Amino acid sequence: MAICMKCWEVRSFDIEGLALGERPDPIAGEGEVLVEIDAVSLNYRDLAIARGVYAPSQPLPIIPASDAAGRIVAVGPGVERWHVGERVIGCYMQSWDRGPSEPSDRTRTLGSPLDGVLCERRVFPADFVVRAPDRLTDVECATLPIAALTAWCALFDLAGAKPGETVVVQGSGGVSTFAAQFALAAGLRVVAVSRSAAKAAAIRNLGVESVILASDTPEWGKEVVRATHKRGADVIVDVGGDSTFAQSVAASGQNGRIIAVGFLGGLSTKVELGQVISKNLTIRGITVGSRASFEAMLSFIETAAFKPVIDSLYPFEAVPEAYRRLASADQHGKICIDVRSVQ
Fold first, then answer.
1. Which domains, ranges and CATH numbers included, belong to the chain?
2. Which bin fits 266, alpha (ψ -120 to 50), beta or left (φ > 0)?
3. What's the rounded Cα separation, in Å, for the pair 33 and 128?
């Protein structure tokens, strides 16, 4: 009789379509490692996939989620760089090593179209796990593959942010929180935009001194310009899409760089081309992220003073509750799942 592991599956497109099931225990093949998953964190992408918004043609069922940390419990033939017992984190893209991404890399992403990590054990290519930082817990490590790496790549790989420049972050979700932490640690000035006083307080606790309440100042782009002595922002990490993009353009200074990271407020938007042209703005989308970028970020984190912000930790049996928390948009930091709590 085959040994089975517990896993969560998206069986229909809705949070209520998440179901606890079983799959055959995976076995590490040539060039692979078998990882016992300790912790998982959720991203907005996971909610969009579960709802059928992100990839409506995705065949079901599929194991959801992409971000996990755990321990190697077996290595396949030909694997020399890893050993049983080592703590690792899976790469979101299971084929992107370094340099620019290829179109084929988008077919090798965890959680869709590949099965994800909300399971007890998973096989990974040995080249697409990275060493977990010793100073972080398993739960903290699980927050890094998408949210942290997106923030890192947006700021440094794409925008080329430099000490002394001003960065605007939006909200207090995973990407924005990491962007604020990385920027402060790298000597940049951070201006944060928040929808609520409670979230504004949480952002200030990170060390951000300038926080704008969007609920009081809908045209917050003008306030960013005022707060920067009419210079405007050098870098904006835009997570809202349609609901924030016009203000991101307004907030940008001359030669500003806007990195379009998310679409919390809608996938389609209008752009004020007059400002884009006159300010010589650069607008870039982002795909995350190569193994080389991941390892560079981890080297920075090893010596940084901050740790990932955890909003909440749910037991494995409560995954739908974690998704509902994500859907509420009330979180500050990352929503995580303790896979070791499997019963």
1. 4-143+308-341 (3.90.180.10), 148-285 (3.90.180.10)
2. left
3. 10
| 3-class state of residue 23 by DSSP | strand
Map tokens 């060390």 to a residue. 207
Encoded tokens for 1: 């009789």
Q: Is 280 exposed, middle or buried (0-12, 13-18, 19+ CB in 10 A)?
A: exposed
* Structural tokens at position 71: 């321990």
Going through 30-135 in order, the beta strands assigned E by DSSP cover 32-41, 67-75, 87-90, 121-125, 129-131
**Measured CA distances, 263 to 53, 216, 245, 285, 304 (Å):** 11, 22, 10, 11, 29
* CB neighbour burial string for 37-50, b if at least 16 within 10 angstroms, e if fewer: bbbbbbbbbbbbbb
| Total length of the chain | 343
Q: pLDDT tens digit string along 272-316? A: 899 999 999 999 999 999 999 999 999 999 999 899 999 999 999
- The structure tokens listed for 234 are 């050098």
Whether omega before 113 lies within 30 degrees of 0, making that bond cis, reads yes
